[in-house]
Every structure is written in C-alpha cells, then in structure tokens.
Amino acid sequence: MTKGRSLMDMRRYGLTILRELETVLEQTDPADGDILAEAILGAERIFLAGAGRSGMAAKAFAMRLMHLGLTAFVCGETTAPGIGPKDLLVVVSGSGETASLAAMAKKARAQGAQVALVTVRPESTMGALASAVLQVPAPTPKADSGFRSVQPMGSLFEQASFLILDALVLELMDRLGETGDTMFARHANLE
Asked: What is the mean pLDDT of residues 27-50?
C-alpha cells in the first residue's frame, strides 16, 4: 500500500462518485432523452463528435448505435463520410463552446444536417445550433451546474454522459425491438 492509502479510501471515493452520479441522473430531464431518441431514429446516418474524455463517451455511444443496426460514424475517423441533409450530428461537450466542435456543428447545419448536443449548458453556442439538447447537470470547470464535485475537472460530466447515453441505448433497444443477442450479432469479429 502507498503512504496512508488503503483499499477503504478507494471504496469511499468510489461510493462518493456513485452518489454524485445519482444526483446528476436524478436531475436529468427524461424529456431530453426522448427528444434525442427521436432525432436519432429519424436520421439516415448519425455522426458522433466530442473532444477528450467527452469524445470517448461519444465513441462508445457510436459503437452501441452500430450494434443497434443504425448507421453511425465517429467524426474525424478516416472512414467517416461527408454529412448531409438527412443526417444527425451528436456532439458531447460539457461547455457547448469547444471551438473545433462548434465549427463542426455550424458546418453540419450548413450541409442541412440536424445537430444534437449533450451538454451542461443548453444556452451555449452549440446549444443554439441544436434541435435536440440533452442537458447533463454536472459541474465542469467550463460550466457551472449549481453544485460542486469532489472529482477533478469534467470527470462527473464525462461519467454521467457515458451512463446517460448507455441508458438511451436501452430506450432505443426497446423502440427498435433489439436485444443483447441481436446486437451481439453485429459485434466486431476481427478482434
């Protein structure tokens, strides 16, 4: 063990994180998820974007959308095609102000695509461009949500985004008649 740290400290920290996540999830408006689900199901193709750890949540969601049988791409990957009028760009950004993502959202709108945003700040630059906004009421250094987290920087937003998007996958499974087995049939087999 390291200087004064014990397994009990890690358990305490983990339980604190779980309580924070529970607080965020309880304050998340289910109507936001419904609107995002409808936007996803109404799109021909779904493009996902995010920066840093938020980008990891977006990539994980893109993978599950593919497992659901939807056509999903991660922006910036070499296999991502151009976006068009029947498409949806889903951006995960705590602040809703990340310059590269805001430029991407503006370009998507200029191409006739819809934009959806997962964020702390629906009133942000990208929020103004979005037809669907899922607000995640978690604090980040770039956006105050009304309470403080013991975790550094945007950790709580990133974790909550991952969980909320996984919950949205369950909703989409219900709407599409998918199961874990039907989704697993689409899982990568060249691993």
From this structure: 97
Q: In whole angstroms, what is the distance from residue 44 CA to residue 61 CA? A: 17
Instruction: Write out pLDDT tens, residues 134-173.
Output: 999 998 776 666 678 877 788 899 999 999 999 999 999 9
Q: Given this model, what pLDDT does residue 88 score? A: 98
DSSP 49: E
Considering 22, 158, 171, 191, which one is annotated as catalytic?
158
Is residue 114 within 8 Å of residue 133, measured between CB atoms? Answer: no
CA 43: distance to chain centroid?
Answer: 17
The residues, any chain, with a CB within 8 Å of residue 97's CB and separated by 6 or more, are 121, 124, 125, 126, 142
The reply to whether 97 belongs to the active site is: no
Give one DSSP letter per residue of 33-47, joined into a string: HHHHHHHHHH-SSEE
